[in-house]
Specification:
By secondary structure, the chain is mostly helical. The protein contains five helices and two strands. It has a two-stranded antiparallel ribbon with strand order 1-2. β1 and β2 form a beta hairpin.
Amino acid sequence: MARGDLTNDQWAKLEAVLPEVRMGRPPRDRRTVINAIRWRLRTGSPWRDMPERYGPWETAYGLFRQWQRDGVWVEIVARLQAAADAEPNDHALGRSRGGLSTKPRLACEHGEWLR
């Protein structure tokens, strides 16, 4: 696992909310493709400069664009937020090494508090 790749716990939570592949052949290893997309978004590098450990850049780019067009990323975020909201009350807001939790900020940015 490279620096910045999903841990086993993170992958388990994400895999639980990933949608079924709707069309075409699914990637051989979705975790590697998701890590490739995360690497690209984290670094801001061109897709073609993606490290070889993630496989062909075209695979990661293709999945990223398809899910972007189909609204899958929004669906994944909504499912992850719903799962986080279902956590016990003692796992919600509080202090961490980074300061206060970012959940209120995220809810505000998406207009949840405006309704």
